[in-house]
Design a protein that fits this description.
Layout lengths: L5 H20 L9 E6 L2 E4 L15 E3 L15 H10 L5 E5 L2 H7 L22 E2 L7 H10 L5 E4 L3 E6 L2 H22 L9 H14 L6
């Protein structure tokens, strides 16, 4: 995304504000929880600290440069390091969404992966969705752990915290965050009848072969 013009930045600012408001409409984030970003050149645009859907404007979005600096007078989300680490680890990532959505938080507080109880768990790239251990928000440990967890997955849970996902567009990233919230909700519901069964290794192999052949679940 090098060589982007002012019009490209203007468009991304508009899209990022719209995506942020969409996460609230979907009840993925409430008040000032969670944060969204998109890659811009060697850096990124990210929601500012304390942002909410009611107050966020295009001008309030913070440009965090590749060297980890930003314009004077602005303050990016406290989780900017986590977003930056994901972009550094995944060159194809164009957008990152971090939420504190209810069911993702509920499952993350057990510090265990979301298991492969349903075939749609496979839409995140494997037979489960990993959960990284709890560490203090905004720190290098959380940033590193999240970026590494997303090596083989497009989303992960953050222990006692929430979730984060990466995608090639803001729309796709919000869709992934919404999908993970749905899967966590359905897992919590299934647990009310006892621990649900898991798909077998053979079933997962067949699922991924079918998904690849039909481009099932492709998001943009």
């Amino acid at each position: 995304m090098s060589g982007m013009s002012d019009s490209d930045e203007t468009r991304l600012r508009r899209e990022l504000v719209a995506a942020y408001r969409r996460t609230e409409a979907l009840k993925l984030n409430e008040l000032s929880s969670g944060n969204l970003s998109c890659r811009l050149g060697e850096g990124m645009l990210i929601s500012p600290t304390g942002a909410s859907a009611d107050t966020l404007t295009e001008d309030a979005l913070v440009l965090v440069r590749g060297d980890g600096t930003w314009p004077a007078g602005q303050t990016p989300s406290s989780e900017w390091r986590m977003h930056a680490a994901v972009y550094a680890e995944h060159p194809d990532a164009a957008a990152v969404v971090h939420t504190h959505s209810d069911y993702c938080v509920a499952v993350s507080c057990h510090n265990q992966p979301l298991p492969g109880f349903h075939y749609l768990v496979g839409l995140f790239g494997g037979s489960d969705v990993p959960c990284v251990p709890y560490s203090t928000f905004g720190g290098e440990t959380l940033a590193r752990d999240a970026a590494l967890a997303l090596r083989e997955r497009t989303a992960c849970l953050l222990g006692n915290h929430g979730m984060i996902c990466r995608a090639r567009s803001l729309n796709a990233a919000v869709n992934l965050a919404h999908r993970l919230e749905i899967m966590c909700r359905q897992y919590v519901l299934a647990r009310q009848l006892g621990e649900p069964s898991r798909l077998s290794e053979a079933q997962w192999t067949e699922f991924f072969e079918r998904m690849k052949a039909q481009r099932y679940g492709a998001v943009r």
